[in-house]
Amino acid sequence: MYFPSWLSQLYRGLSRPIRRTTQPIWGSLYRSLLQSSQRRIPEFSSFVVRTNTCGELRSSHLGQEVTLCGWIQYRRQNTFLVLRDFDGLVQVIIPQDEKMPTGEIEIKVKTAELLNACKKLPFEIKNFVKKTEALRLQYRYLDLRSFQMQYNLRLRSQMVMKMREYLCNLHGFVDIETPTLFKRTPGGAKEFLVPSREPGKFYSLPQSPQQFKQLLMVGGLDRYFQVARCYRDEGSRPDRQPEFTQIDIEMSFVDQTGIQSLIEGLLQYSWPNDKDPVVVPFPTMTFAEVLATYGTDKPDTRFGMKIIDISDVFRNTEIGFLQDALSKPHGTVKAICIPEGAKYLKRKDIESIRNFAADHFNQEILPVFLNANRNWNSPVANFIMESQRLELIRLMETQEEDVVLLTAGEHNKACSLLGKLRLECADLLETRGVVLRDPTLFSFLWVVDFPLFLPKEENPRELESAHHPFTAPHPSDIHLLYTEPKKARSQHYDLVLNGNEIGGGSIRIHNAELQRYILATLLKEDVKMLSHLLQALDYGAPPHGGIALGLDRLICLVTGSPSIRDVIAFPKSFRGHDLMSNTPDSVPPEELKPYHIRVSKPTDSKAERAH
Amino acid sequence: MYFPSWLSQLYRGLSRPIRRTTQPIWGSLYRSLLQSSQRRIPEFSSFVVRTNTCGELRSSHLGQEVTLCGWIQYRRQNTFLVLRDFDGLVQVIIPQDEKMPTGEIEIKVKTAELLNACKKLPFEIKNFVKKTEALRLQYRYLDLRSFQMQYNLRLRSQMVMKMREYLCNLHGFVDIETPTLFKRTPGGAKEFLVPSREPGKFYSLPQSPQQFKQLLMVGGLDRYFQVARCYRDEGSRPDRQPEFTQIDIEMSFVDQTGIQSLIEGLLQYSWPNDKDPVVVPFPTMTFAEVLATYGTDKPDTRFGMKIIDISDVFRNTEIGFLQDALSKPHGTVKAICIPEGAKYLKRKDIESIRNFAADHFNQEILPVFLNANRNWNSPVANFIMESQRLELIRLMETQEEDVVLLTAGEHNKACSLLGKLRLECADLLETRGVVLRDPTLFSFLWVVDFPLFLPKEENPRELESAHHPFTAPHPSDIHLLYTEPKKARSQHYDLVLNGNEIGGGSIRIHNAELQRYILATLLKEDVKMLSHLLQALDYGAPPHGGIALGLDRLICLVTGSPSIRDVIAFPKSFRGHDLMSNTPDSVPPEELKPYHIRVSKPTDSKAERAH
After folding, report:
1. Any bridge partners for residue A365, and if so which?
2. 3-state secondary structure B253-283
3. Is B457 found in the same domain as B422?
4. Which pLDDT value is given to residue B234?
5. Between the CA atoms of B586, B588, B590 and B592, what dihedral angle is there, to the nearest 10 degrees?
6. Helices (H) and strands (E) in chain B — how many of each?
7. Of B188, B248, B335, B570, which residue is least crowded by CB atoms under 10 Å?
8. Residue A13 — very low, low, confident or very high, per pLDDT cuts 50/70/90?
9. CB pair distance less than 8 Å for A202 and B586
10. Is a pLDDT exceeding 90 seen at residue A184?
11. Is A515 on the interface with B (CB under 8 A)?
């Protein structure tokens, strides 16, 4: 095949693994993904007129007659065409005379047919052409032609397929579809409504199949999964979609470790061949541990800079604000160490860090620079004794040129602040060229032992579920439900990948009495709306638990995409609009009538008030 | 294992193929389904505490220690338990002394734990217990425990899984999810609305991913499929669901025969092992042929009783109403032959057939009985000449004891009537013990060459699409679009199984100009609402076509279920209600506010008129 030099360069790129998201991904990558697996390569040309895809032809095809279908990528003097499909590019020569171009192979046209004309495109289908996201969304059907979008969507399809094989064929799960037109859940303020033809009666688009999957367990379908469409109306939020997809799983007779092993196996089995393999089992940390160590319940564990408790070093300090903090309940002194911070962080970085801490956390941050001669450079250097200094260096594993950021205050608050600064500083260091977070690394973590309840934001003396009211309490903490429910831990678990929560689940309550007690007595919910579920638990519900993985986010991380919109064929804008078709749209009043609703415009409600 | 005699009988039932839907299906059928295929049996006990399922144990397990989880089906004197899970039943003995029951194997309890108590069930989980459908739907989570529902849902899961393997792994299709919150389509009066947070702006739940799949073709994703959730608000209709599922497929560079071969291969590959294999290719008939032969576009081809045109026999008849009919345009004489009708049809059956024809079609039906001595018994027997008689017997292949039903009139009307009577008579004969339609037989048929347009019901001088406006015209009929569009045939095709339409699709229009002409000039549609699709066609849309299979109906037919509600985990009642949770339900006014809608109750509209 004849390749002009620029094309040959593109193709040589294929044999290199994709290391960074900014590196362009070219055609045929999908095929190479398939080739490296043990599976047979699908027949891409069955049932259609073409005999081969554009990216498929090699010198082994020499002399064969082929039929290709594709888009014209380039045309030169009506002699050369470069044809493109999802699989790659190929040069076609329309014979003028018997001249022979160099290269491995050429396609000599016998007959050619123009299948459709094409208006001038709003942007060219070439990787190096930059376009705004608004333009990409408006012409989504053109953006989908890019090799990057082809790769993302095809990888997504393949990964989900492997998950299905693992669940259905290897482990006997049953793929069951559950309704999306359902009843609203208590407190389901984020649920889209769907008016019915009965006056005043509405369906609701559920946020997850939670109730159904539990009912399936009661129904003896003891291994359920579904690639489930879910809905959440959160108004405008960046990188969220009003409809999204989760890998939804529920099992009977299972415990937390069972679900964890299942998911580890699932990810290992379905992981793309062109990425480093997944190592199992994943590490597990408790909620208390991740908060103390990373200041967040979804830590990015690809790098260190952990939070260290240095309270003991300062028990007898003369530094006022440390003394003050330590004298209060839950008072602590905490610090993180920024490796080579002295080299990479500027004075104004430190200033903005201190301002951020003051503005958002009402906390003081004390920077301590460790010079090359291991001397302290800090506003409080003179108040730190030599023994304290050595102990600090030991605890923090501080090296030359490092910077320690120190704060004092209530445990949770100090941790949250340092957790934020840890990420901020990592961003800063990376903009200065330090590689802290390897983009080829996938660092999974289980977070367990969450609290079962949290104080309500509106009224901290009341309780709300930390996750949802069906979560089972930790077996060791059941007695606390009747004495100090705030202290009870749950059997909820989160799966975290590179600082993103990609899944969450729990062992559920299968005892109707306990479920009623939690709903009615502890949470003061209206149990009437859940009477069908409570009744179901009464009829011999088996012990059960499950999990849901956020598919869009997972694929986004696997493909290294900047946004989940890059792994969804037709995403909405962050305001919930489809920019291609102008959705949502107005509806003529006569089409609202069958649903017994009227639009109440701002003027309407004014008129109402005037009555 | 020890089986009491009644249990042993149930199990022996397993080795027999299921011949009729009324025959009960017992546990372990799902396992036998798996065993007969080439696939490995999934691990049903991975990740959980049980070591085996109840239906799995055989004498080969003798002496092993096992852990089982299940529901207590029977209990006798606290000595015997019969435990049930999806896979079957097993007897457990709680040792009292060393007595040894007869049978192959027994499970001697070491420890037992009651996992949950169970209130008195509203109905027992036994096949022979009859319950109303309302009760089944109200306690769906209990109904799901029946071996029949377990079999249906597990077969559905497995069949869809095989379809995915065929499409993804064998033929390179990409599974792509498309949005369900979209813009309403022109004339989409059956689309549910979803109010957005923007005043007066609505999403719509689409009836199919039609637009998206075409846009994916424009986007170069040239082999798309999706197991797609679709929505249609048809109010109360028996055996329809407001949400349903279709196997949605679209391909580029394909023609009608390509799609047909794909689907034949798909069904053959995914067909359950416990049914007779699917024979391909499926026969094909044109729309004109099926109408003439079966009086319907979805004929049940498991049996004959075809419509025969006998106009030529009566060209010179003296029978007035035949003369009259033949003198009019498209006037015909048609008949069907009911085998052994003289034996099985009673005088009052014939009377009710004649009344039906008069009431619903304003047509006369003439019954002709062929006696054992091959004499005619008919009101008009004297007016039929011997030559006509012989010709009729030859054309209709009439045998002794048969009944011929004869009618005269306009071709389409006569065919439609006889098509209805053909099914009515088949029902009648089957209630009298004649087996006309073998329930183990799956008779597929392609119907092609549909008309592209139909006269509008409200205004027969205007046209509407016979299927949808994106259907391509038949290549031989493109010129007719500009002269006699009513006569143009389309490239639409339907797949029919045993008298049910289970799929339909078409080659689409990929030329923007032709699409605009059809939409604006012929159909007088508002093209503004489809401007994004028209624009997409302008940018080099490839030739493409596709199909959608109705999954619920297909599984219903495969499992021989009386209703699609039996192959859906949580179906709605025919009025669109979820009887388990009381859905749809009212919503407090404050939850309507964010969506800028108000309920307009009948009193409201009265008030409006009074203004």
Report:
1. A407
2. CECHHHHHHHHHHHHHHHCCCCCCCCCCCCC
3. no
4. 86
5. 0
6. 18, 23
7. B188
8. very low
9. yes
10. no
11. no
| Inter-residue contact B400 to B343 (CB < 8 Å) | no
Q: And the tokens for A30? A: 């999908």
User: How far apart are alpha carbons A90 and A290 in whole angstroms?
Assistant: 52
The string of pLDDT tens digits covering residues A396-425 is: 998 888 999 999 999 999 999 999 999 999
User: Given an 8 Å threshold on Cβ–Cβ distance, is A50 in contact with B253?
Assistant: yes
Q: How confident is the model at residue B555 (pLDDT cuts 50, 70, 90)?
A: very high
Q: Where are the beta strands (DSSP E) in B432-519?
A: 444-448, 453-455, 463-465, 492-497, 500-507
How far is the C-alpha of A510 from the C-alpha of A527, rounded, in Å? 16
Q: Tell me what pLDDT residue A384 has.
A: 81
C-beta of residue A101 within 8 angstroms of C-beta of residue A79: no
pLDDT at B536 over 90: yes
A593 belongs to a structural domain: no
Nearest Cα to Cα of residue B258 among B228, B239, B281? B281
**Residues B161, B257 within the same domain:** yes
Calculate how close chain A gets to B502, using CA atoms only, in Å.
19
Kindly list the residues from chain B whose CB atom is less than 8 angstroms away from the CB atom of residue A579: none
- What per-residue confidence (pLDDT) applies to B7? 26
pLDDT tier, B75 (very low <50, low <70, confident <90, very high otherwise): confident
What is the reported pLDDT for A25? 36
pLDDT given at position A139: 96
Residue with tokens 């004390």: A366
CB contacts < 8 A (A, B): 384
Q: Which SS3 state, helix, strand or coil, does residue A490 take?
A: strand
- A316: three-class secondary structure by DSSP: coil
Whether chain A has a CB inside 8 Å of the CB on B54: the answer is no
A114 and A46 both lie in a single domain? yes
**In the predicted model, what is the mean pLDDT of residues B75-79?**
76
What integer is the mean pLDDT of A290-306? 97
* Residues comprising chain B, all counted: 611
Token pair in block for residue A357: 């801490």
pLDDT reported for residue A388:
86
| Residues A172 and A108 grouped into a single domain | no
Q: Which of B408, B431, B454 is the last residue of a domain?
A: B431
pLDDT of residue A35: 62
Chain B residues inside the 8 Å CB shell of A201: 584-586
What residues of chain B lie within 8 A of the CB of A170, using their CB? Answer: 40, 42-43
Question: Residue A321 gets which letter from DSSP?
Answer: H
CATH of residue B325's domain is: 3.30.1360.30
Are A161 and A250 in the same domain?
Answer: yes
Range of the structural domain that residue A11 is part of: 5-118
Chain B residues whose CB is inside 8 A of the A235 CB are 197
CA distance A527 to chain B (A): 12
From A9-23, A138-152, A207-221, A226-240, the region with the lowest mean pLDDT: A9-23
The per-residue pLDDT of chain A, averaged, comes to: 86
CB contact under 8 A, B253 and A71: no
Average pLDDT (A24-32) is 52
Instruction: Tell whether A115 is within 8 A of chain B (Cβ).
Output: yes
Does B421 lie in the same domain as B465?
A: no
Domain count within chain B: 3
A557 and A448 together in one domain? yes
Distance CA B457, CA A38 (A): 57
Residue ranges of the alpha helices (H) in B107-209? 133-138, 140-143, 147-164
B200 in contact with A, Cβ within 8 Å: yes
Is there a domain that residue B471 lies in? Answer: yes
In a domain, B582, yes or no: no
- What is the token pair recorded at A323? 């003394």
Look at residue B439 and tell me if it is in a domain: no
A535 Cβ contact partners less than 8 Å away, ≥ 6 residues apart: A512
Identify whether residues A475 and A557 lie together within a single domain: yes
C-alpha closest to that of B182 among B161, B162, B157, B209: B209
Of B103, B118, B133, the domain-final residue: B118
